[in-house]
Amino acid sequence: MIQVDNIHITVPGLSESQAASFGKQVAERMAVHLAETANEGSSVVNQLNLRVTMPEGMGHEEMADHIAMKLVQQLSMK
Predict the structure, then answer these.
(1) What are phi and psi of 11, to 5 degrees?
(2) Tens-place pLDDT, residues 6-47
(3) Is residue 62 very low, low, confident or very high in pLDDT (cuts 50, 70, 90)?
(4) How far apart (Å, rounded) are the C-alpha atoms in residues 30 and 15?
(5) For residues 48-52, average pLDDT
(6) R_g of the chain, CA atoms, integer Å
(7) CB 9 within 8 A of CB 22
(8) More confident residue, 77 or 75
(9) Residue 1: per-residue pLDDT
(10) CA distance 11 to 21
(11) DSSP code string of 3-38
(12) Phi-psi region for residue 35, left (φ > 0), alpha (ψ -120 to 50) or beta?
């Protein structure tokens, strides 16, 4: 089981409300990807830092999905 207690995402150029909405999109997509991986067992990850570079012109929904997939991949490897 993977449980995320807190997620902090920095995306330059977003207003506070846009950033909050974007963070919610990432969290929702993480839930979908986590359900798909259905990792057995559990472990504790105190902190995970992930730097992702997005292709120019990528939309917010695509970015949210890409970030969520990368986070789940990293968490699944722990």
Answers:
(1) -130, 110
(2) 888 888 888 889 988 998 999 899 888 887 776 556 667 778
(3) very high
(4) 22
(5) 84
(6) 13
(7) yes
(8) 75
(9) 64
(10) 12
(11) ---------TT--HHHHHHHHHHHHHHHHHHHHHH-
(12) alpha
Q: What is the Cα–Cα distance from 77 to 23, expressed in whole angstroms?
A: 22
Report residue 68 as tokens: 């969520």
Residues in the chain: 78
Region 56-77 average pLDDT: 87
Q: Which two tokens stand for residue 40?
A: 């057995």
Show contacts of 36-40: CB within 8 Å, 24+ apart. 37/72, 37/76, 39/1, 39/2, 39/76
